[in-house]
Structures are given as structure tokens and as C-alpha cells.
Prior knowledge:
Layout: H1 4-121, H2 127-141, H3 148-165, E1 169-178, E2 181-190, E3 194-199, E4 205-209, E5 214-217, H4 223-233
Antiparallel strand pairs: 1-2, 2-3, 3-4, 4-5
Helix pairs in contact: 1-2, 1-3, 2-3
Amino acid sequence: MKGVKPLILAGIVAASATVHANNLEKVIDKSSEINQSAAQSQTKIDKIADSMQGRLQQFKTLNKEIDGLAVYNAQLTKQLNSQLAEMESLNESMDQVSVIERQITPLMMRMITGLEQFVALDVPFLSDERANRIASLKDMMDRADIASSEKFRRVLEAYQVEVDYGRTIEAYTSLLEIDGQEREVDFLRIGRLELIYLTRDGKKAGSWDQQSSAFVALPDSTISQINKGLRIARKQLAPDMLTLPVHAAE
């Protein structure tokens, strides 16, 4: 009987070990399931975290874009306001230009009329050239394809040409009626102080008398000085003193 107890005890131990082994396997299996579930949950959590991080980054990017657009819109607003102010200024300038243009046209007409009267009363040098210049100005004023600014420039240019006549010396050839006969003569213009002619044969000379509005004969003693003046005007001689009669223009 003593030999039977150890066998029973060994069987109990073996059975207990089997039970513990089965329980341990269940625990391990359960733990494995828990770990798998935890891994799946962690995967879901990671995906959700990644998604949240992506959305957060997208949100930050959108906020930056919104801030950039706000700055850009503010700049565009400033530019737009500046352009509106400039347009308003241009509109005012255009209105002023229209007023000035309406005023400047009569002014130019008066200037041309004044220039024509001045030429008619002046020493009669380059008569055809000066008359053609004034006629050209009158024709120009009737043309619509020329801007008012260009018209005004040409009128001022004509005035400048007349001003320059008063401080230059000039020699030119033209026709002049002498003793009832038209002859070719050399004219010597000294500013507006004197207009002298000399026939091409060098035998007759005369100067313009503003009071009588006619040419008067000059003595033969002046012919050498007139020739000298003609050569100086043509740059054939260096500038030098001339002894000539002077009839000042009125």
C-alpha cells in the first residue's frame, strides 16, 4: 500500500502540471490575442495620428496661404487706390488741358497776326521767305491732324527765327527793281539796322530808308565797304570793322 501513494501523488502532480500547462497555453493565447488587438489598435491610432498630423500641417499651410493672400490683397488695395487717385488726377489734368487748349488757339492766332504785322513793318529782307513762313503757320492752324502743342512749337520757332535776324549778318542774292528795271543784286543785311544792295556789276548801291519805305542810292565811296561786308557775311573774310551808313529800323 505504501507503494501506491507515491504513484497517486505522482499522478496528481502530473495532472496538475497538465492543467497548469493548459491554463498557461490559454493565457499565452489570450495574451497573444491581446497583443494582436493592441497592435491593431496601435496601427489605427498611428493612422489616426498621421491623419491628424497631415490635417494639422494642411491647416497650417492654408493659414500661411490665407495670411499671404491677406497681405497681397492689402497691397492690391493700395495699388488700386493709388491708380484711382491717379485716374482722378489725370481726369482733372485732361479737363485743364481742354481749357488751356481752348485758350491757346486764340493766343496762337493773335501771335501769328502780330508776327505778320511786324514783318510788314520791318526792313524788307527775305520777303518771300518770311511771307511763306507766315502763310504756312496760317494753313497749319486750320489742320486737325496737328496737335496744339506742335502748332504752338512752330509758332514759337517762327518767333525765334525773327529774333535771330536781329543779331546776325547775312548776304543773299535776289531781284530788285532799280530805276524801273528789275535787276539781280546782292543784299547785305546787318541785323535789322541796315539792308544794303549792290548790283552784280558793282556799280550801283543803295540802302533801305525806313522813313520813306524805299531804297535810296548810296555814294560810290561806300561800294568797297559793301563788298567787304558781303565777303564777311559769306565767311570769305574774318570779321572786321565796316564803315557804312545806318538807317535804324523803327
